[in-house]
């Protein structure tokens, strides 16, 4: 690993949360009597903040954002216990090994920071990260560079020594706009074509391969 610092996305990069997110979205759509959207359309929204989904899936419906966010969070909290969210293969071992070797790490996610803290504690990886950035911690969410810039500025990291790792094009664009190197993972929610089009410097299909970058 030639980078001293790594900033990870969470959903679709470290943990497989897609089924839970899509189910929550579909139940929210039903509860609010919104025009139907396919599971694939819902999955394509993973990576965006909840507040921004309305403008992408239902741009013609005014004043929906607050109602959507409120309903989504209530439904998420009511059903999350029914889903067994797991880390992707090799994530735990690679994270703990890199932490032990002195690589500095953080998470920049569109998920709320409280939820990030909860999952990182559950997976026993919270000690690997120097900082967790949630969707509510920045003015502009992905693909804006704000989440990465917040980590760089707070931790005093050099962007030239930093790698951003994510599964969606918004993760790659976020890193590029912040001036860091970027790595796309293909096992999450984005496609190889989308990661390539976004300009990822590296693309890997197994988390183990991260150690070779």
Write a short abstract of this structure:
With about 210 residues, the chain is of the alpha/beta class.
Give an overview of the whole structure.
This protein has nine helices and eight strands. It has helices at 18-31, 39-43, 50-57, 65-79, 91-100, 113-122, 146-155, 169-178, 192-198, and strands at residues 5-8, 15-16, 86-87, 104-108, 131-133, 162-166, 181-185, 202-204. Helix content is 42%, strand content 14%. The termini are close together. Helix 1 (18-31) packs across helix 4 and helix 3 (50-57) crosses helix 4. It has 213 residues and is of the alpha/beta class. It has two domains: 5-16 and 85-212, Rossmann fold (3-Layer(aba) Sandwich), CATH 3.40.50; 18-82, DNA polymerase, domain 1 (Orthogonal Bundle). Strand 7 (181-185), helix 9 (192-198) and strand 8 (202-204) form a beta-alpha-beta unit. The strands form two sheets. A six-stranded parallel beta sheet has the order 5-4-1-6-7-8, with helices on both faces. Strands 2-3 form a two-stranded antiparallel sheet. The model has no long low-confidence stretch (mean pLDDT 96).
SSE map:
Elements: E1 5-8, E2 15-16, H1 18-31, H2 39-43, H3 50-57, H4 65-79, E3 86-87, H5 91-100, E4 104-108, H6 113-122, E5 131-133, H7 146-155, E6 162-166, H8 169-178, E7 181-185, H9 192-198, E8 202-204
